[in-house]
Amino acid sequence: MNTSIPPTPRLTLHSIQLRVVSVPLRRPIVSNPTVGRYTEWPFILVDLLTNQGITGRSYLEPYIVKSAAYILPAIQAIADALRSKPLSPLDCYKAAVQAMHMSGREGIGLAAISAVDMAIWDAVAKAAGLPLAQYLGASTGPVRAYNTNGLWLLPPDQLRDEALSLVAEGNFSAIKMRLGRENIRADIAALDAVRSAVGADVRIMTDFNQGLDLGEALVRLHALDNEGLQWFEEPIVYDNFDGCAQLARELKTPIQIGENLYGPRSFYKAVQAHAADLYMPDLMRIGGVTGFMRCAAIAGAAGIPLSSHLYPEVSAHLLRASESTHWLEWRDWAHPFIAQPFEVKDGAVHVPDRPGSGIEWDEAAVAKLLVHSR
């Protein structure tokens, strides 16, 4: 009897299918002018079809539907350059980034690379018959998470019930709320409302969505520094590394940044500048799986806690394979079109034992939510 393991097929790209869907939000986003207000959330769905019959899947969150008009052609251009070539994730990532040298290594180009990179990693892990976490050398299982599905800039009386609902959605021990109201008194009133609802044992992360200038941040964050919060996320504009570093030096509460950093080089520059205590890369901006794992190596070597921003399905695999894993940001906005959402239990997201990233589309739902296809 032949007991040898069959070789993993060498994948080559046949074509790529792109669709844009828009999902109504159960809890609309109500934020400062930097972010805005949203009742729906767009997604770009990526199907990377190989000549070997395996399809790699990923999605992007472009924030506004109109952005897809710029991102889709960039994704297609990368796919055209890779057609019929071996889909080796690191080689493909390197070639795509090198092609950006003259046009810039950030922005829409890197978002497009991220989309293709995540789909390639999904495909090669499927070809190996392994969950992505296991393909990266880790194991499947739980990842500690906090619920970020609400608690926007709402009146205190609305925050109480919402906070309780967020905890109950997966027996969460941590939730995120947004701060940065018109004055410190309003922020404290909102914080008191949430804490009185969920109790002292539930951890509270806070996010200012870059809504403060440095002067206001110095005043407000010092005033909140004894509130026992888990972190202050992006209190000022993300690329003011000097200002972020000043806040990190002066405050007891950790400063968290990272979702707006483009690529591992920017991540490394932020770490070198001591711009924050904690980091949370975003898969669309950091460079997909390849970019995230390179940041994970930097964070691990520096002893810096690493969390994730959005993209909980793929991020859960990557945090299982990261040395300094801290928290997964959990939100369910993609659930309406994902065939088998990941299990959330006892404050953790459980990475399933399915090949690849575990993302498959509910095609009937996609058809109802579809805005555009290419």
Structure description:
The protein is of the alpha/beta class. It folds into 2 domains: about 15-130 and about 365-374, Enolase-like, N-terminal domain (Enolase-like, domain 1, 2-Layer Sandwich), CATH 3.30.390; about 135-360, Enolase-like C-terminal domain (TIM Barrel), CATH 3.20.20. The chain contains 13 helices and 13 strands. The strands form 3 sheets. The chain has a 5-stranded parallel sheet with strand order 5-6-7-8-9. Helix 3 packs across helix 11 (about 290-300) and helix 5 runs parallel beside helix 6. It is globular, with a radius of gyration of 20 Å. The model is unreliable at about 1-5 (pLDDT under 50).
Short description:
The chain is of the alpha/beta class and 374 residues long. It is built from 13 helices and 13 strands. Strand 8 (255-257), helix 9 (263-272) and strand 9 form a beta-alpha-beta unit.
